[in-house]
Amino acid sequence: MKLLIIGCGGVAQVAIKKCCQADDVFTEIMIASRTESKCKAVAEEMKNKTKAHLSTATVNADSVEEVVSLINLFMPAAVLNVALPYQDLTIMEACLQCKVHYIDTANYESENTDDPAWRKAYEKRVKEKGFTAYFDYSYQWDYDKKFKKAGICALLGTGFDPGVTQVFCAYAQKHYFDTIETIDILDCNGGDHGYAFATNFNPEINLREVSANGSYWENGKWIETKPLEIKREYDFKGVGEKDMYLLHHEEIESLAKNIKGVKRIRFFMTFGQSYIQHMNCLQNVGMLSTSPVNFEGREIVPIQFLKALLPDPATLGARTKGKTNIGCIFTGYKDGKKKSLYIYNICDHQECYKEVGSQAISYTTGVPAMIGAMLVATGVWNKAGVYNCEEFDPDPYMDALNKYGLPWAVDENPVLVD
Ligand code: NDP
Question: Which strand (E) or helix (H) includes residue 358?
């Protein structure tokens, strides 16, 4: 089974190493990214640690033609996109042209939100959808008919959140509930890297997400909030008490479509005071802007310049200590009785570092990326069309989480979030 992996950042490096562990499935892996030296370094590190044959290439995944050429050269069964959400559509288009399966971990977002054509389409979508986030699934769902016709599968968003959280929803629906009424997705990172400010995954994508308006889905419609307007405290197993804030998050959109009868879906993420103070300050001075500014005769995008100054998330592994606790709290009915449930995973930053040299955020994303690719490539999760993670049988995915380093637990008496 040949797999083409595009991107070689923090998440990709974990996905590559986990694919190398599953070398009974992935016999040939090509790692391709903008900076090939990073791909070569990982390939070198994995030499003699896997039976899989590794090769590398340079690709600019903003170009459909370049990705098509690479696919035609390597002839993979599937492409795992662990570059950035900006490349989702070009890579999907290339997969379509070459008739190979497509897998990613984050939904499409435009890099250039000043482009007038994009803005016009965005404003129309805001009116239709009722939330203002720059990312939404419609761009990728629009490929469904074409993927069906081509007989290939696109699996969207197989990271932890999105990804595992939706598999938890499908699992709760299949094994524990007749009707799920509410879902609260909680993403707690109790890790400390010792920096005053750093992001755990790509800073540009992370800061765009956290500084945007929040929103949640209730009784069939979206309710928008100001950025970080809704705050709750929660005592997380393995971590302790943390402040968490309501964010808009992409899996709410697909869960609202696919979990029938659900009345409310919210997403909360924990942040420390230092993170919030730095982010607010950077926003107030314009450093989170995605619009180019002229600086001494050349155009720079402030948030891209900021990314160059911040620590690379792929280098945080050695210094990050503590645990993550990510999961979903459900309420609903089984056999006429009201019940609640928390399905979650606890992951230890230092354990991840010992295993693959990465912190737990890259690990909790890279492992599910590999699992999604494996299930699609082996045909266990494979239907023609474009799908989100809750649309398949959750059981093989849940088994794979236990096997590949993200064991989960079920709490049948969780504290609910008000
Ligand atoms: P990084 O910035 O560390 O890595 C991104 C990689 O993509 C880099 O290797 C970069 O190359 C490469 N890349 C960027 N642009 C291009 C391009 N045009 N052509 C080819 N390669 C390109 O990001 P992360 O690893 O932190 O994040 C990767 C993805 O994972 C993101 O989409 C992020 O949103 C997603 N994610 C999903 C989560 C989930 O739970 N679902 C959680 C966390 C992240 P170069 O080295 O040259 O910069």
Answer: none
**pTM for this one?**
0.96
Residue with the two structure tokens 């997403």: 267
Q: If you measure from the C-alpha of residue 83 to the centroid of ligand 1, how many angstroms do you get, rounded to a whole number?
A: 4
Q: Is 10 close to ligand 1, i.e. is its CB under 6 Å away?
A: yes
Read off the pLDDT of each residue in 283-311 and give the average, rounded to a whole number. Answer: 94
Would the CB of 202 count as within 6 Å of ligand 1? yes
- 313 touches ligand 1 (CB under 6 Å): yes
* Minimum-distance ligand 1 atom for the alpha carbon of 59: 20
- Terminal CA-to-CA distance of the chain, rounded, Å? 47
How far is the centre of ligand 1, averaged over its atoms, from the C-alpha of 258 (Å)?
Answer: 27
Please list the residues that pair with 332 across neighbouring strands.
180, 339
Residue 12 pLDDT exceeds 90: yes
- The residues with which 81 forms a beta bridge, in sequence order, are 6, 104
Instruction: Please state the separation of Cα 97 from the chain's center in Å.
Output: 25
**Could you report the per-residue pLDDT of 301-326, keeping only the tens digit for each?**
999 999 999 999 989 999 999 999 99
Alpha helices in 10-114 (DSSP H): 10-21, 36-46, 64-74, 88-98
Q: Residues 256, 263, 392, 202: is their CA dihedral positive or negative?
A: positive
Check if 205 has its Cβ closer than 6 Å to any atom of ligand 1: yes
Range scoring the smallest mean pLDDT among 35-44, 75-84, 312-321: 312-321
Report CA 208 to chain centroid distance, whole Å.
14
206 CB within 6 A, ligand 1: no
DSSP per-residue codes, 292-321: -EEETTEEE-HHHHHHHHSPPGGG-GGG-B
Closest ligand 1 atom number to CA of residue 84: 32
Of the candidates 355, 376, 397, 382, the one whose C-alpha atom is nearest the C-alpha of residue 80 is: 376
pLDDT digits (tens, 9 = 90+) for 46-58: 999 999 999 999 9
Classify 367 as helix, strand or coil. Answer: helix
Residue with CA closest to ligand 1 atom 13 = 83
